[in-house]
C-alpha cells in the first residue's frame, strides 16, 4: 500500500462504522487516544486465543512462543525509534510510568539540594508532578520555560535558564493541548552543552513525527502505545544504555532479579532490570501490530494527509466570527485548540457530541498552560490518519449551530 487510500484506511478501523446519537461517529479525540485498526484487535485476540502463557520463565512451547512475541515487539520498537540497542527499550504502562520511572531512579540518584530541573509551561501534568515530587524530596528547584502568545517555547529564556546547576531538562516533544512541535534537537544540544540530560515526552510526537533517538541524541524518551493506534497499558521508556545500566532499580519483584537471598539480592540485566513482575504481555504483543501498521501505511503519507486536515480545519475555523485558535506555532501537528467568545467549551462539546462528533474540552491535563492564556480550557479537535475533510465540515456546521444556540 504505497498510495494513501483513505477508504481503505478507514475500512481497517471497525469502530469507525458505528453511530453515536444516531449519527456516524466523527472521532476527533485522537490526542487522548487513537482508535485501533483490526490488525491490533486481531493480534490481541490471537494472543489470548493461541499463545497465552507467562513469559521469560517457562521452558514449554507456549511460554517460548509468548516470550518470542513479546520480545519481537521490543525489536519493532527499536526499529521504530531507531534505538542503538534493544536493551534500551523498557516496556511500561505508558508515558506516565516512563517519566515516573526516570524520576524515581535516575532522579533520586542524581538530584540533590540546590540542583535544578527545567520543564516547560506547556507540559502535561504527567511531566510536571513527578519532578515536583522529586524536587520537594531533594530540595531541588523546578524551573519553567515560558511559552509565547503563539504557543511556542521561549528559547531565549531557556538559554538563560541553563546553568551549571541544571541537571535535567524534561520537555514535551509535541504539545497535546496546542499541537506545537518543540525544537527538540536544539533543546538537547543546548542542554548537553550545559551538562544536563534531556527527557523528551513523546506521547504526542511518536505518532506524527519520525523519531530517531540516536539522531536526536536524547537521553530518555517516553511514549504510550494507545496514542499510536496500539492498545492501552503498553508503553515505552527509551534510555541510553549506559544511563539505564548506572541507574538504580525501580520496582522490585520477579524478573528484575538475578539472584535473591535474605543476605542480598542481585539484579537482572537490561531491559529486564526495569520490568518487574508479569508485564502487560498481550497489549505489548499487539503493539507490534500497530507499529507495523504505521510503517506499512507510511509516516510520510500519514503526515501529509494530517497536515491537509489541519490546514483545512484552521482555515474553516478562522472564518467563524468569535472563534479564536489557541496555539498558532509555526511547527504544528494535527491538533487544533480553540475557544469561542462568551461560550463555554463544555457546552460546545456536548452539542457536538449530539451530532456524533467527539472532541475534547477542558484543560487537557495542562492547567498551567491554560492559566497563561487566561482561559479555563479549550475545545480540541485532534486528527488521525483516518479522518476526513467531510468530517471537519460536520464539526464546523456543529460549531456554527452551537454558537447560534449558545450566544
Ligand atoms: N504527555 C503528553 C503530552 C500526553 O498527551 C499524555 C496523554 N494525554 C501523557 C503525557 C500521558 O500519557 P499516558 O496517560 O498514556 O501515560
UniProtKB/TrEMBL annotation:
Its cofactor is pyridoxal 5'-phosphate. Residues 26-394 form the Aminotransferase class V domain. CDD domains: SufS_like (cd06453). One of its GO terms (molecular function) is pyridoxal phosphate binding. It is an enzyme of class 2 (transferase). Keywords: Pyridoxal phosphate, Transferase. It comes from the Bacteria. InterPro entries: Aminotrans_V_dom, Aminotrans_V_PyrdxlP_BS, Cys_dSase_SufS, Cysteine_dSase, PyrdxlP-dep_Trfase, PyrdxlP-dep_Trfase_major, PyrdxlP-dep_Trfase_small. Pfam families: Aminotran_5 (PF00266). GO terms for biological process: cysteine metabolic process. Its EC number is 2.8.1.7. It catalyses: (sulfur carrier)-H + L-cysteine = (sulfur carrier)-SH + L-alanine. Belongs to the class-V pyridoxal-phosphate-dependent aminotransferase family. Csd subfamily. Catalyzes the removal of elemental sulfur and selenium atoms from L-cysteine, L-cystine, L-selenocysteine, and L-selenocystine to produce L-alanine. PANTHER family: CYSTEINE DESULFURASE, CYSTEINE DESULFURASE 1, CHLOROPLASTIC. This is Cysteine desulfurase. It comes from Flavihumibacter solisilvae.
Amino acid at each position: 500500500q504505497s498510495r494513501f487510500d483513505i477508504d481503505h484506511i478507514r475500512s481497517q478501523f471497525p469502530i469507525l462504522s458505528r453511530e453515536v446519537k444516531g449519527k456516524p461517529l466523527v472521532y476527533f479525540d485522537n490526542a487522548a487516544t487513537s482508535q485501533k485498526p483490526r490488525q491490533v484487535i486481531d493480534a490481541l485476540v490471537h494472543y489470548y486465543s493461541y499463545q497465552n502463557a507467562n513469559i521469560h520463565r517457562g521452558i514449554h512451547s507456549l511460554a517460548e512462543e509468548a516470550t518470542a512475541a513479546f520480545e519481537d515487539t521490543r525489536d519493532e520498537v527499536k526499529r521504530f525509534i531507531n534505538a542503538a540497542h534493544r536493551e534500551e527499550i523498557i516496556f511500561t504502562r505508558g508515558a506516565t510510568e516512563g517519566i515516573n520511572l526516570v524520576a524515581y531512579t535516575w532522579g533520586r540518584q542524581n538530584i540533590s539540594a540546590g540542583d535544578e530541573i527545567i520543564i516547560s509551561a506547556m507540559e502535561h501534568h504527567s511531566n510536571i508532578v513527578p519532578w515536583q515530587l522529586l524536587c520537594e524530596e531533594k530540595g531541588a528547584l523546578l524551573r519553567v520555560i515560558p511559552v509565547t502568545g503563539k504557543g511556542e517555547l521561549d528559547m531565549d529564556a531557556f538559554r538563560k535558564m541553563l546553568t551549571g546547576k541544571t541537571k535535567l531538562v524534561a520537555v514535551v516533544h509535541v504539545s497535546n493541548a496546542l499541537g506545537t512541535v518543540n525544537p527538540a534537537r536544539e533543546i538537547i544540544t543546548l542542554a548537553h552543552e550545559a551538562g544536563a540530560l534531556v527527557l523528551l515526552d513523546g506521547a504526542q510526537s511518536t505518532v506524527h513525527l519520525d523519531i530517531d533517538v540516536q539522531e536526536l541524541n536524547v537521553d530518555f524518551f517516553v511514549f504510550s502505545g494507545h496514542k499510536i493506534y496500539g492498545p492501552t497499558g503498553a508503553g515505552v521508556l527509551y534510555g541510553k544504555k549506559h544511563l539505564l545500566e548506572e541507574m538504580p532499580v525501580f520496582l522490585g519483584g520477579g524478573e528484575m532479579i538475578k539472584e535473591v537471598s535474605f543476605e542480598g539480592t542481585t539484579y537482572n540485566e537490561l531491559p529486564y532490570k526495569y520490568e518487574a513482575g508479569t508485564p502487560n504481555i498481550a497489549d505489548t504483543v499487539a503493539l507490534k501490530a500497530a507499529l507495523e501498521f504505521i510503517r506499512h501505511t507510511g509516516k510520510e503519507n500519514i503526515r501529509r494527509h494530517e497536515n491537509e486536515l489541519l490546514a483545512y480545519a484552521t482555515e474553516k475555523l478562522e472564518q467563524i466570527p468569535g472563534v479564536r485558535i489557541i496555539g498558532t506555532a509555526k511547527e504544528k501537528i494535527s491538533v487544533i485548540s480553540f475557544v469561542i467568545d462568551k461560550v463555554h467549551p463544555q457546552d460546545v462539546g456536548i452539542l457536538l457530541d449530539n451530532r456524533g462528533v467527539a472532541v475534547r474540552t477542558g484543560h487537557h491535563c495542562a492547567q498551567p498552560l491554560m492559566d497563561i492564556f487566561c482561559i479555563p480550557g479549550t475545545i480540541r479537535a485532534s486528527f488521525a490518519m483516518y479522518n476526513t475533510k467531510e468530517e471537519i465540515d460536520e464539526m464546523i456546521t456543529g460549531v456554527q449551530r452551537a454558537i447560534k444556540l449558545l450566544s
